[in-house]
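Hi U.,

Before I forget, here's the chain from the pilot set. I'm dumping it here mostly so it's searchable later in email.
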Amino acid sequence: MTVVERVEPQVGAMSLTGHLAELRNRIVWSFLAIAVGGSIGFAWGGPIIELLRTALPSDVKLIQLELGDGFAIRIQIAFVAGVILAMPVLLWHVWRFIAPGLTAAERRAVLPWIPAALVFFAIGVAIAYVILPFATQFLLQFVPEGVDKTINIRSYFDFMSTLFLAFGVLMEFPILLVGLSRVGIVTSDRLRRSRRIVILGIAIFAAVVTPGGDLVSPTVLGVTLYILFEGTIVFIRRTGR
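Structure:
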């Protein structure tokens, strides 16, 4: 008796030129989403600046050194706000770009984790906002006695923007691992065997991507990522992978 294997047709296969055109369109729509979110952030720049200033102690003053710093800060706030507000659209376009390369079973396995990626990004931004006052206080305690605590407003918002985006993006780490497990690239056993390398990588990344040189930010980020890593291993193992 001959067994006929049913092969799933590849739907939506396209040439390299088609893939590049698809990538271009996804990037264009993503930039438009960031621009829309950024316009909202620019319009609300004043209240956002006042909110973020509350992370500094009352005896610390902000000073503007260059003529264009005020405008540059508003643009910076607009960009960060644009990325945060556009994240649902960005994740959707990432999914729509990679989905054609997956099988139907892989798409069904990965799709539910796209909303979870948005939640984890929001959690990362929230954690960054919570630790911002502690990070600034840690750095300010080393100001010598008798020196006025006056900070360049541009450097402060550079620190804040990098911190927010770093926490938000790196919190996608467990979602990436789960997605890779769903398509059979990693398993819980492989992750456990790679624990030492992963811990070293987390420590290096946490130290590199967090700004300011304080110990609070990389410590909180590193510990959070490690806890998520161990939780991801448990989750993947319970799913039988």
